[in-house]
Write a sequence for this structure.
């Protein structure tokens, strides 16, 4: 967004403004609700039409038929084998359903939706004229973005990230006493680009934060993202995404059989873990760097950040059989020791309480003494 790029100290990254001069300070302000992040790495898709919610409900992982105006959730599009293809945040205003997708996925998601319309009374449009602003709720920044949020149907387009708790119909595999996602009250406002630029012109450098700050808070909250944690093998169970993006009790949809089978009867082949990296900031791994236990490669890095309190941290997808203990991340700059914190346990899934049938014996049964003459 050109207005934010004009703020003193802005430094461009690959996907947008990376920071405004001091990523650690920006993280602290963002976490306290005092900074706004221009989210150039995400795109808005508008789905209109009277059948939009029932149609989206029938083809995605989330129950959307009764989504109320102003209510937020998120959805996944799965392939027939239950693997994640697309992901999006969802908010409805009573007239349109607004999807927030990672920029690298938005066009593909919109194209897939167009192909799946058939006779449904629904429209799909990528809205390049709209921008996204991220905040943490509870401070002045949230009020400022809410004041400029678009209201095409009278309801502000503000997506409330559901990651703070387990959604209705969801299930959490993590067994920690308090999930770190509970502390991240993440909000995203959909605004016109003109209003975003007007707001940017009123902000001081200490009222904004870059994408690095937002990513650090996301990684610390164990929050999966399409652009980072998803590859061609990803099942939603592996990253604990069922807690907010999958409704286990809704009707059929593509991939539903695999979701139910893994959840009720099996275990996902991989699991997401949080890594606390060796304290040196001189070398950080990159997404895709392999993770080892001894000489055995057991997974790879998906997301990396420097957190203002926790230091260097990462998320990694590991083999289900990877030991619970210290790991080594192999990078171009050398090996990095990593302490592992389990997010998804190795025995995740197989949650159904299915009664075991007594095995039938081929031996003749003993005579009933009551029949003895």
């Amino acid at each position: 967004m050109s207005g934010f790029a004009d703020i003193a100290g802005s430094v461009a990254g690959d996907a947008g403004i990376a920071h405004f001069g001091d990523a650690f300070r920006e993280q602290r302000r963002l976490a306290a609700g005092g900074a706004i992040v221009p989210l150039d790495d995400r795109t808005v898709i508008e789905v209109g039409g009277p059948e939009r919610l029932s149609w989206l409900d029938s083809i995605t992982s989330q129950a959307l038929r009764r989504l109320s105006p102003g209510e937020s959730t998120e959805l996944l599009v799965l392939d027939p084998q239950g693997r994640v293809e697309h992901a999006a945040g969802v908010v409805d205003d009573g007239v349109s359903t607004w999807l927030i997708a990672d920029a690298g996925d938005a066009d593909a998601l919109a194209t897939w939706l167009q192909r799946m319309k058939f006779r449904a009374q629904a429209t799909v449009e990528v809205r390049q004229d709209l921008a996204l602003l991220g905040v943490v709720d509870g401070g002045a920044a949230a009020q400022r973005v809410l004041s400029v949020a678009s209201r095409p149907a009278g309801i502000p387009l503000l997506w409330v990230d559901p990651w703070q708790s387990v959604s209705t119909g969801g299930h959490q595999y993590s067994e920690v006493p308090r999930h770190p996602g509970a502390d991240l009250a993440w909000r995203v406002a959909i605004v016109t680009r003109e209003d975003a630029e007007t707001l940017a012109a009123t902000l001081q450098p200490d009222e904004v934060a870059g994408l690095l700050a937002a990513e650090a808070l996301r990684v610390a909250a164990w929050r999966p993202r399409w652009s980072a944690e998803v590859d061609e093998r990803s099942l939603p169970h592996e990253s604990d995404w069922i807690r907010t993006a999958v409704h286990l009790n809704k009707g059929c949809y593509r991939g539903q059989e695999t979701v139910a089978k893994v959840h009720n009867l099996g275990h996902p082949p991989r699991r997401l873990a949080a890594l606390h990296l060796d304290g040196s900031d001189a070398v950080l791994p990159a997404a895709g760097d392999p993770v080892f236990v001894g000489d055995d490669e057991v997974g790879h890095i998906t997301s990396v950040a420097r957190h203002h309190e926790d230091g260097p941290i990462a998320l990694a997808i590991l083999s289900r059989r990877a030991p619970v203990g210290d790991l080594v991340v192999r990078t171009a700059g050398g090996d990095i020791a990593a302490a592992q914190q389990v997010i998804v346990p190795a025995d995740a899934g197989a949650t159904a309480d299915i009664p075991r049938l007594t095995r039938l014996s081929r031996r003749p049964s003993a005579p009933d003494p009551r029949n003895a003459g």
Observations:
- DSSP finds ten helices and 17 strands in the chain.
- The longest strand covers residues 296-307.
